[in-house]
Amino acid sequence: MLSPVADVCEQQQLTLLMVSHSVEDAARIAPRSMVVAEGRIVWDGATAELLSGHSSASHLMGISAR
Fold first, then answer.
1. Are 28 and 22 in contact (CB under 8 A)?
2. CA-CA distance, 66 to 59, in Å (whole number)?
3. Contacts of 63 by beta carbon, 8 Å cutoff, 6+ apart
4. CB 24 within 8 Å of CB 30
5. pLDDT (tens digit, 9 = 90+) per residue, 4-50?
6. pLDDT 10s digits, 49-60
């Protein structure tokens, strides 16, 4: 379901704001991620950096390097 939506957004040069508790879902389609805690953006950057386990957000979310 997510890939077709991402494809349309890319083709039409649209921005998609997706809210998810699933890091895996976000990683499949989002080149950029934000982490929100208690209503505030606490981290903003490349999804690859988030998933690398080397960002401060990775530590906050308990994500380890793969």
1. no
2. 13
3. 23, 50, 51, 53, 57
4. no
5. 888 888 899 998 888 888 877 877 888 888 888 888 888 899 988 88
6. 887 876 666 666
Q: Give me 31's structure tokens.
A: 């080149």
pLDDT of amino acid 19: 85
DSSP letter for each residue of the chain: -HHHHHHHHHHHT-------S-HHHHHHH-SEEEEEETTEEEEEEEHHHHHHT-SHHHHHHTPPP-
User: Are 50 and 64 spatial neighbours (Cβ–Cβ below 8 Å)?
Assistant: no
Residue 37's pLDDT is 81
Residues in the chain: 66
